[in-house]
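Format notes (please read before filing issues)

Several people have asked whether sequences and structure tokens are stored in separate files. They are not. Every record keeps both together, in the order shown below: the sequence lines, then the token lines. Line labels are part of the format and must not be stripped during preprocessing.
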Amino acid sequence: MLATVPAPAGFGVAELQLDIDDTEHERRRAAGLGVATGHGFGGLDVLMALPHGLPVPLTALTDHQRAYVLRAPAGICTVTDGQVVRHVIRPCRVRLATVRAASASQLALDAADKFTTICARRVILTRAPSVHFPEKLLEFGSYGIGVCLQHPDGHLETLVKPRPWRVKRHSAEAWWFAETVYGHFLAQQSPPASALSQAP
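Then the structure lines:
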């Protein structure tokens, strides 16, 4: 499922295209679980240390990890017979960040560049390029940022294709970002996200 949401606070004005994990989304709905965040990175650093779907003895965990899994909702993990099993996975992937700007300015480049470690990036221009635009195209292209020109009829003309983004490493920060934008997605759904519980 594809969805478009606004970027979280602190990331400027951008639209994010999400690829929602339908299976995880439905599993969370059934469990009454919204976003899996809470304190710090919401225990995501703990969860990343646990394999998905496989039991891990509680005795193999640190005190901090044990404290988290023992109070986490069943939708996140379950503890039985001295073992913990992680159920939760990342609910979505951010595929593309789109910034709209009148021109190919440095501000537009900087706004799109904030998403360098997260996803592919694109700037949509609403004004015809200036005479110096070829140099700007090269600059945006060197950063891997795509550029499109939106014509008056709404048609988008691709001037520079965005560089495909590949996951280089998994981190709690990246998972936290995915949970944050997933929260925006839930807020657009019915029932609203407020009807779903938030993990500790």
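For reference, the curators noted about this record: The longest helix spans residues 172-187. Helices lie at 22-31, 44-48, 63-71, 106-113, 133-142, 172-187.
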